[in-house]
C-alpha cells in the first residue's frame, strides 16, 4: 500500500539500501552467480555453497532461476536449465 502511494506521488524506488547487520542465529545472504553460458563442469566448480536442481539435457547452461545477482539464503536451491550451444 505504501509502495503504491509513493509511486503515485512520484517517489522513485531505491535499490541501494543499507546492508543489514546480522545477529546470531541469522546468516548473511549470498549472491547468486551468473551461470548462463557455462558448462556443466564449470557449474560444479563454482557452486560450493548452493544446491543445484538441474533440468534439461545438454552441455551448457541456458537459463537459471533465481537470476544472477539475486541475494538468497546459503541453503537455497538454484534451478538451472541445460541446452546445447
Summarize the SSE layout with pairings.
Elements: H1 2-8, E1 30-31, H2 40-46, E2 51-56, E3 60-65, E4 71-72, E5 77-83
Parallel strand pairs: 2-5
Antiparallel strand pairs: 1-4, 3-5
Textual characterization of the structure:
By secondary structure, this protein is α+β, with helices and mostly antiparallel strands. Helices cover 16% and strands 27% of the residues. The protein has helices at residues 2-8, 40-46, and strands at residues 30-31, 51-56, 60-65, 71-72, 77-83. Strands 2-5-3 form a 3-stranded mixed sheet, with no helix packed on it. It has a two-stranded antiparallel sheet with strand order 1-4. The longest helix has 7 residues, at 2-8. The radius of gyration is 17 Å and the shape is flat. The N and C termini lie far apart (45 Å). The model has no long low-confidence stretch (mean pLDDT 83).
Task: Return the average pLDDT rounded to an integer.
Answer: 83
Instruction: Trace the largest sheet across and list its strands.
Output: 2-5-3
- Whole-number radius of gyration? 17 Å
Helix and strand pattern: HEHEEEE
* Count of alpha and pi helical runs: 2
Oligomer: single chain
N- to C-terminal distance? 45 Å
Largest sheet features: 3 strands, mixed
The overall strand count is: 5
Helix fraction, binned, reads 10-25%
Low-confidence segments, given as residue ranges, are none
- Class inferred from helices and paired strands: alpha+beta
> What portion of the residues fall into strands of 2 or more residues?
25-35%
Overall outline: flat
